Amino acid sequence: MAQGMAQNTERATNVTADGARNAEIADLVRILEGQQHRKLDVIAPAAALRFRQGNVHVEGVESQITEDGVTNVDGIYRPTAVADEGVADKLRIPLAYLRRMRTDNVALLDENVNAWLRQEPERKFMLRAFRGENAPGSAPAEGVARALLSDSYKLMDNFDMLLAALDGVQQSGHPARVTGCDLTDRRMYVRVESEAVAVQARALLRGYRSPFDGRSGDELPLISAGFVITNSEVGSGAYTITPRAVFQVCTNGLTMAKDVMRAVHLGGKQEEGVVSWSGQTQRKTLELITAKTADAVRTFLSRDYVEAKVSEIEAAAGVPLAEPTKTIEHVSKALSIGTEAKDRILAHFVQGGQMTAGGVMQAITSTAQTLTDADQAAALEALAVPALTAAAAHA
User: Fold this and answer.
1) Can you give the pLDDT of all 395 residues of the chain as single tens digits?
2) How far is the C-alpha of 168 from the C-alpha of 62, rounded, in Å?
3) How far apart are CA 15 and CA 372, in angstroms?
4) Of the candidates 326, 325, 387, 337, which has an alpha carbon nearest to the alpha carbon of residue 357?
5) How far is Cα 172 from Cα 162, in angstroms, rounded to an integer?
């Protein structure tokens, strides 16, 4: 949690070829379109997989011939940290031990993984990868192993999910906009907000100052309705739509995890070879995502919903803290927040000027905005409501 932080009062922003933090929707679409052309998904038996020098070697899987040409599967794929987690999980190798081998003894890593692969040579896995970019006339380039998954994993790719979700927002007819997007090796995050649905929250924002620009919650006591769409292509979670209230004075986001809508990546066993969606399966899945998003818009982007949530947390948020440092120490320990993150939260709490349990909640959500690692930011933001409850109880 404590790693990957930017400056204390700067919102993290970054866009690369394969990742993004607080990006525009156009940037996310461009990245996802580029990834679509490099994706390779294959069902392979353990006998076709080998580790050499810490990389995944695929050998003996039949190439696929389509109208687009020949898709070669055999090759070398460099595992991401997420793929290593999948290897550890599927082969029941302790993850900490696998990471130590990768750092200190790659030959031992190869030996361990290959020994367990040989135990069940017919066992099938899904390997999700990116193909390497080959220069004309050159040897096949090293690709990227993104994940090792069950052969029953259901493909629900970010690009398709994003387009279906945006279609659902559009079909709802509700005025809403995408305010920021994140893309990591694990997940895609798309934040949607409707300033057309903004409720007064004077009690909740009384005495609060934005740590980013010093604006006062007393002068701008509004909370907008919103939600965040998440999806994982690599087994790190279901497709979800989670309600998210946005404090306009500081753009702090408060996610309401208990009301989340989900669509899980579970399907039937798939045949060996290169994986592709059937037209009917894809259409039904995307229609479901569009419908779920439209339902989320109607439910979460409503004044009644936001007012009810504000009412739920106001009493706890108003509890004064006699010893804020001790309370934040207690909350951090209870929620397993690391030392560096705890120190940043305390600094944001002081800058926010709200000496209440609600001030702890705000400090957590504002600190989350400064993290450069989007997965860590989302995890921290999700702790804001539990932190509020813990702080009020401790006080």
Assistant:
1) 434 343 456 889 999 888 999 999 999 999 999 998 899 999 999 999 999 999 999 998 877 665 556 667 899 999 999 999 999 999 999 999 999 999 999 999 999 999 999 999 999 999 999 998 765 555 567 999 999 999 988 888 999 999 999 999 888 888 899 999 999 999 999 999 998 999 999 999 999 999 999 999 999 999 999 999 999 999 998 889 999 999 999 999 999 988 888 766 545 555 555 555 456 767 888 888 888 888 888 889 999 999 999 999 999 999 999 999 999 999 999 999 999 999 999 999 999 999 999 999 999 999 999 999 999 999 999 999 999 999 999 98
2) 39
3) 11
4) 387
5) 15
**d(Cα 183, Cα 185) in Å, to the nearest integer?**
7
- The answer, as to whether pTM is greater than 0.85, is yes
Virtual CA dihedral for 325, 321, 319, 219, nearest 10 degrees? -90
Alpha carbon distance 244, 224 (integer Å): 9
Q: How many CA atoms lie within 13 A of 152 on its CB side?
A: 5
CA dihedral of residues 215, 220, 226, 231 (deg, nearest 10): 10
Length of the chain: 395
Residue holding tokens 């994140």? 182
The 10 Å CB-count burial string (b at 16+, else e) for 31-50 is bbeebeeebbbbbbbbebbb
How far are the Cα atoms of 63, 154, 277, 281, 333 from residue 268, in angstroms, in the given order? 23, 8, 13, 12, 41
How many angstroms separate the first and last alpha carbons of the chain?
25
Tokens of 320: 């004064």
Instruction: Give CA–CA dist 189/228, Å, rounded.
Output: 7
Tokens (6 digits) for 313: 């947390």
Task: Please give the structure tokens belonging to residue 363.
Answer: 């400090």
